[in-house]
Design a protein that fits this description.
Layout: H1 5-8, H2 13-23, E1 36-37, E2 40-41, H3 44-69, E3 72-78, E4 87-90, E5 109-112, E6 117-121, E7 125-135, E8 140-151, E9 159-168, E10 173-175, E11 189-191, E12 194-200, E13 217-225, E14 240-252, H4 256-278
Antiparallel strand pairs: 1-2, 3-14, 4-7, 5-6, 6-14, 7-13, 8-12, 8-14, 9-10, 9-11, 9-13
Helix pairs in contact: 3-4
Length: 279
């Protein structure tokens, strides 16, 4: 049998198209069944590949941003430079320390220096400091108070005491509890001579009052309850010395590099989407 001209020189275009449909149905489909580029369908496998690329880029950028956000901004409430209390109470107050007023009968000494504020007293005492204008600490997640105890000395031993901290927002005083002391209540713990940084991870009131409004910090109050160091509880009953050097709150802020990474990721996604549209 004699072959036609088409059959002698190979398959016709029509036959080639049918053969491609049978072997690669994802490459060529009838119009109206999907997205076409120059008459040919963009294969689902190709589309899935681009989607995976988008997800990978976004995941990497998000991970890098989370690492950068961990940077902390320090807001200093006091570095105790030439510091003076606005008011003193109990045995931190000269008049209040007198026996006739219910004190221990030992006149306290409050010392203001270029880098610290010291208290030498006997028995419970406290003192408040009012800011000239409110401080905005919105977003703060932690407070830190650093101080040094000279007495009791290491030779005297370790004693259960409370170097406490309260912060006010103009409407009420919030009694804070430290997260790194043994007591789990206010700042009670075992103390002896040495330098300490106690901190708390929230600004809730220990006694159940309303939380602190961090956007309007108006004052803070320092206190020391000698507790087991006091003679009434079997302690030496001698004056204590405590020196304050720093009170800060910490807030989390994104680093400039994190913002740059976010912009880079957004630009990458935009370029990738444009590439898909052109294909």
């Amino acid at each position: 049998m004699r072959l036609s001209r088409k059959r002698r020189f190979g398959q016709s275009n029509h036959e080639k198209q049918h053969a491609m449909k049978r072997t690669r149905p994802d490459i060529l489909r009838p119009p109206g069944t999907g997205l076409f580029r120059r008459g040919y369908l963009i294969a689902p496998k190709v589309m899935k590949l681009h989607v995976k690329r988008f997800v990978n880029v976004l995941a990497v950028a998000s991970g890098l941003m989370l690492c950068g956000i961990a940077n902390a901004q320090v807001i200093t409430l006091s570095d105790f430079h030439n510091f003076h209390l606005s008011a003193a109470y109990g045995n931190w107050d000269a008049a209040g320390s007198q026996i006739i007023n219910g004190g221990e009968g030992y006149t306290p000494t409050l010392t203001s220096g270029p880098t610290s504020f010291g208290v030498n007293a006997l028995g419970y005492g406290s003192g408040a400091y009012n800011f000239a204008s409110p401080i905005n600490g919105a977003g703060a997640y932690q407070w830190r108070l650093t101080f040094t105890i000279s007495h009791p000395t290491a030779a005297q031993g370790t004693f259960w005491m409370n170097p406490g901290l309260d912060i006010a927002d103009g409407t009420h005083l919030v009694h804070l509890t430290a997260a790194n002391t043994a007591g789990g209540f206010l700042s009670y713990g075992n103390y002896t001579a040495g330098t300490y940084t106690i901190y708390g991870n929230n600004f809730n009131d220990t006694f159940g009052g309303a939380p602190l409004d961090l956007s309007t910090i108006t004052a803070f109050n320092l206190e020391l309850d000698p507790a087991a160091y006091d003679a009434s509880q079997g302690g030496p009953g001698t004056p204590y010395d405590i020196t304050y050097t720093s009170l800060v709150v910490l807030t989390q802020v994104p680093e400039p590099s994190s913002l740059a990474l976010f912009g880079l990721a957004a630009g990458g996604l935009l370029m990738a989407s444009r590439r898909v549209k052109r294909q």
